[in-house]
Write a structure and sequence with these properties.
Nucleotidyltransferase, domain 5, 5-stranded mixed sheet, 10 helices, 18% strand, binds adenosine-5'-triphosphate, binds magnesium ion
Length: 353
């Protein structure tokens, strides 16, 4: 009797080795579709803390040291071998040029040895993909507020890969404003988590800080004036001999930022008639913001989606998710790939409605 061969079960999801080195987190992940087999992150916070911000040259050097170590750990945790990998995902930009180049060079070396393609990923698009771990079934269109260290933008996600930026910050990004205010108040870098922690002990209604551009008819933001208003307030209180509890200033600032972000995001959600709103990027790990948006979404009858906290700040999982999507659309490249420190989110020019 002739034995029929078992039908081959094809897994359409590629095994992705993802690398992220755009700023001060070295990260390696193995992903398959929206499944995470391993996520390794090595933060350089301790290295840069004493300088009050990221020192690019130090960041590059630390990526070189951390990458091999993280790759070994990820291989062990994912229980895969390099020969199983279908595609190598790497952050192309935006980010620090030297830091990006460390990751890109490593990705190319691995691609060369394994003879596998590379998907060069836009870091901001990767942040948008971070929500798919929590919500793999999310349907487009949806609205996504990107709030990170370098970006603040409201994005209408018409379909994956098709984005329309409704508005972005004219000056400081929300995360950058958190970092600068924290520095003024004497908290270490990075300031966002410090402000969040301090705010718990502060009175958020103690100081009436401005809500910049809240009444503008568009979806642009501005946080530089808010930061300056806080600094002037603090200096004035000191000059007058009144002083201040820095927790109160921190809490008042956090409330002002979150109120502006939420007001504009929910206004846009209504105008563009989306059913779902997501917030991604480092500032999305802020508990006050998460709770404020959750409450507002409930009242507005809008589905609200957040990435897990450890996928809000930089990680390689989101890079793997974005790469998986592009790879399946046959959008990949080869060893000629380069970094792009000022890369913008690719946008569609088609009208929305
Ligand atoms: N709990 C928090 N509350 C407020 N801000 C936070 C919190 N945690 C992190 N942040 C801020 O998030 C920023 C880091 O986020 P992220 O890693 O996404 O930024 P980045 O990668 O440096 O910038 P970009 O993604 O725009 O290139 C920092 O400015 C940090 O202060
Ligand atoms: Mg980022």
């Amino acid at each position: 009797m002739i034995k029929r061969a078992e039908p081959r079960i094809l897994n359409p999801e590629p095994l992705v080795l993802a690398i992220e080195t755009s700023c001060d987190e070295t990260a390696v992940a193995f992903t398959k579709g929206y499944e995470v087999l391993s996520s390794q992150i090595s933060s350089q916070v301790k290295v840069h803390e004493c300088y009050g911000g990221v020192v690019p040259e130090l960041a590059s050097r630390k990526h070189v040291i951390a990458l091999n170590f993280l790759l070994d750990k990820a291989l062990k945790e994912a229980k895969v071998s390099l020969s199983d990998v279908d595609v190598i995902a790497i952050t192309k930009g935006p980010g620090l040029v030297g830091a990006l180049m460390v990751g890109m060079t490593a990705a190319k070396e691995i691609a060369l040895v394994l003879e596998k393609p590379i998907v060069a990923v836009n870091h901001i698009e990767a942040h948008i993909f971070s929500i798919y771990k929590n919500k793999p079934t999310l349907k487009t269109p949806f609205l996504c507020l990107v709030v990170s260290g370098g970006h603040t933008m409201l994005v209408y996600v018409e379909s994956l890969g098709k984005y329309r930026v409704l508005g972005e910050t004219l000056d400081d990004a929300a995360g950058e404003a958190f970092d600068k205010v924290a520095k003024f108040l004497g908290y270490p870098y990075p300031g966002g988590p410090q402000i969040e922690k301090a705010s718990i002990k502060g009175d958020e209604d103690k100081y009436d800080l401005p809500r910049p551009m809240i009444d503008s008819k568009d979806y642009r933001f501005s946080f530089s004036g808010l930061k300056t208003a806080l600094i002037y307030k603090g200096r004035k209180l000191k000059e007058k001999g009144e002083g201040y509890k820095r927790e109160d200033l921190a809490a008042s600032f956090q409330k002002a930022v979150v109120e502006v972000l939420a007001y504009k995001a929910f206004k846009a959600a209504k105008e563009y008639e989306v059913k779902s709103l997501a917030v991604v990027g480092g500032v999305a790990s802020n508990t006050y913001l998460r709770e404020y948006f959750e409450k507002t979404a409930k009242k507005a009858g809008i589905e609200f989606i957040l990435p897990e906290k450890n996928l809000s700040t930089d990680n390689a999982v989101m890079v793997g998710f974005a790469a998986s999507y592009h790879y399946k659309n046959e959008d990949y490249s080869n060893l000629k790939e380069t970094v792009s420190p000022n890369l913008r989110l690719p946008v569609t020019t088609a009208s929305i409605k």
